[in-house]
Amino acid sequence: MSLLIRNVEIIDPLGAHSGKGDVLIENECIAAIGKTLSPEGHDTLDADGLALAPGFIDMHAHLRDPGYEYKENIETGLRAAAKGGFTSVVCMPNTDPPVDNASTVKYIQNKAKRLSLGKLYIAGAVSKGLKGQELAEMGEMFAQGIIAVTDDGRPVSGAQLMRRALEYSRIFGIPVMAHEEDLSLVGDGVMHEGLVSTTLGMKASPAAAEEVMVARDVVLAELTGAHLHVTHLSSLRSLDIVLNAMERGLNVTFDVTPHHLTLTDEAVMTFDTATKVNPPLRSPDHVDALVAALAKGLVPAIGTDHAPHAIHEKEDCFDDAPNGIIGFESAFPVMYTDLVLSGKVELATLIKTMTAGPARVLGLPQGRLEAGAPADLILLDLDTQWSINPDNFESLGRNCPYSGKKVRGQVKYSFTDGRLLVKDGEIIS
User: Fold this and answer.
1) Is the pLDDT of residue 1 over 90?
2) pTM (2 decimals)?
């Protein structure tokens, strides 16, 4: 089967193709890209008025399976991802039981394979049981197919264990994704320490809780020569540290979330627990620094940190509610509206940090528009205006701080290996 997508505005994250053209899909791959490809012998899709880009890659998401399927499961998570334009997703290991062995990796792989809802990659745990005491069976998990290790949700507090994790990860050529948080500085804080927390009288933790751990792990990355990836970076000083490391040629990368780019700690003044996240929403100086870095092309990747919770859990008081924001279905329209349409960030830059950027960090073949690349593609309607309503989401989670927000931009079609997943904005059953 072949499909020719015609008259589409091409957004190539690597810059080889631009403007209006055609894209031919054959044998699960991109076969050709050109201005006037012949439709003879192919099914055709007239995409006039739409923009084509590689499918988004989310390198940080929580699908909650096994163990917390009442929050999300692999099917609902991948449906939500596909609807949001994410054709590839990396799931985190903080499940029950944790993903700290090859059999749990295989369990997730088998579930995802049966669903055929997109490409699911798996990050294994750094430590057994996510307890930060003993290294997990990294080699066995790598043989089963993990592409990174992380104790996300918890920091690797012991410097010696972190050093060993980096050393072993280098053997397998995979990154250690670090959740950077000094728990002794966090204490019982539930939001960013600053003017807003003082005004509200809320227990707070300083940005330094992230920054000191980032500094430590950059030193360890330099010591070991391993690939350190700082995930959901949120602090301006953390940004300075990692950019300096990258300038010095260290194998250090990072990602930033949509909510840390578009929300400040002032959102917490509503006491909406959908704004409670870890790391916490920061003050405007931190947000402005991240946006400026993104605009300059210095941010390697964006990851949603999609973290669904059951409604009754988030209905608890702010202090006791769990951390987490859902992101699959709101990420692109929110960033397109708040960052691109406001003139802060170029559309091509945003697309690159959601496609080619994470693919490069993780060593994946996706994120490219060229002959032979996987036909993981999305078609975007950049003019559609709509209001975010989590009740209409595919995700089981409703913990969305953007509920009611008016946005522009929507995924109209989504393809994985040339197979249609989303048509006219809805999942193909």
Assistant:
1) no
2) 0.97
